[in-house]
Amino acid sequence: MKDRGQHVDEHSDDTAISYRVVGFDELEGAAAAHYRRQRRRRLLLFVTLPGLILGSATVATAYGTGLIGAPATTCEPISVPAPARDSFEITLLNSNDTDGLGTEVARDLTLRDFDIATVGNADSSVYVKGAATIYYGSEGRDNALLLQKQIPGSTTWNDARPGESVQLVLGYGFDKLVSEPAPPLPAPSEITVNVYNTTWKEGLASDAAGDLKDRGFTIGKTGNDPQTSFLEDEVAIIRFGPEGQRSAKRLAEQISGVQLQKDDRADASVSLVLGNRYDGLKPASSVPEVKPYVRPAETIQKPCAPEQE
After folding, report:
1. CATH code at position 195
2. What is the DSSP letter of 155?
3. Which ranges of 86-140 would DSSP assign to H, the alpha helix?
4. 307 in any annotated domain
5. Contact of 136 with 158, CB cutoff 8 Å
6. pLDDT tens figures, 40-67
7. Residues 6+ apart with CB under 8 A from 10
8. Do residues 27 and 4 touch, judged by C-beta distance below 8 A?
């Protein structure tokens, strides 16, 4: 170690090099200020560099484990074609205190082309607070999602049932089905008509049935009126039950002066009962030609699921 201020000479074979080590106390003015700045920079680097290295490692670890800075995973529902409304069966149960609600909802869903297999009341132990719960199995998930669109606030639940059928349980929060345009009246080919005669004119029921068949109606029974009524001053009466009201309206377009009469039949058939003033159907040119209604294609939104690693 050389003392500060000592002059040192070093010699090689060809060149003599000499230098002098100068102490800090000998520096003055700008040189001294420059020296102080250099010492401060070295001290700061010595203190902060380990911290920066440690901090960088900590941040890298946090990114790697997903604690901070991980990019948000976006998961959007997937829109796919919906199954046909009548391609699966629905068991409908009412779990709230409103009498007849199950039957009413079943009728509305039927008008919307859903296939209601059975209607009843849920067991007293079943309590659904919300609008409804739709139970399904692995094969019926899409069906449940389609039905869910009809009931605002309803939820779905996979109970691992077999097959494609679903069970709809109406809850205390049920209000009404979602609004959608009413479908048109059924086409003649979708209507079954019984034709009955109450007059003394023989063959009148068969003749009227033939005319209706030519216009596309499906003919059920024909003959004398099983209720043995006598319609002396009437053209005709169309009898129908709750399920056949729309069919009765379509049939009424064919006959001038016909009257509608509701009865308690359970199916959607209608009965045309001919009176003394019946003289045939309207001219075909005055009746609109109707084809079966084809419901527009629908979609459902499948909830996305995070990818499995």
Report:
1. 3.30.70.2390
2. E
3. 101-111
4. no
5. yes
6. 655 544 544 455 444 554 545 545 555 5
7. 16, 17, 18
8. no
Tell me, yes or no, if the pTM score tops 0.85: no
Q: Domain range for residue 18?
A: 1-74
At 131-186, the pLDDT tens digits run 999 999 999 999 999 999 999 999 999 999 999 999 999 999 999 999 999 889 99
| Side-chain half-sphere CA neighbours of 236 within 13 A | 28
Q: What is the DSSP letter of 255?
A: S
Does 44 reside within a domain? yes
Domain-ending residue, one of 135, 150, 182: 182
Task: Express each pLDDT in 96-109 by its tens digit.
Answer: 999 999 999 999 99
Please state, as a whole number, how many other Cβ atoms lie within 10 Å of the Cβ of residue 273.
Answer: 24
Q: What are phi and psi of 125, to 5 degrees?
A: -80, -10
Number of domains in the chain: 3
In the chain, the percentage of residues whose pLDDT exceeds 70 is: 75
**8 Å CB contact between 119 and 101:** no
In a domain, residue 294? The reply is no
Residue 305: inside a domain, yes or no? no
Q: Which are the contacts of 161, defined by CB distance < 8 A and separation ≥ 6?
A: 135, 136, 137, 140, 167
Residue 116 sits in a domain of what CATH number?
3.30.70
Is there a contact between 140 and 164 (Cβ–Cβ < 8 Å)? Answer: yes
- Residue range 3-39, pLDDT digits in tens: 444 444 444 444 443 334 445 455 456 555 655 666 6
Domain stops at, among 158, 182, 206? 182
Distance of CA 231 to the CA centre of its chain: 51
The contacts of residue 37 (CB under 8 Å, 6+ apart) are: none
Alpha-carbon distance of 112 to 93, in angstroms, equals 18
Q: Which two structure tokens, joined as six digits, stand for 278?
A: 């019946």
Nearest-CA neighbor of 193 among 238, 236, 128, 163? 238
229 shares its domain with 192: yes
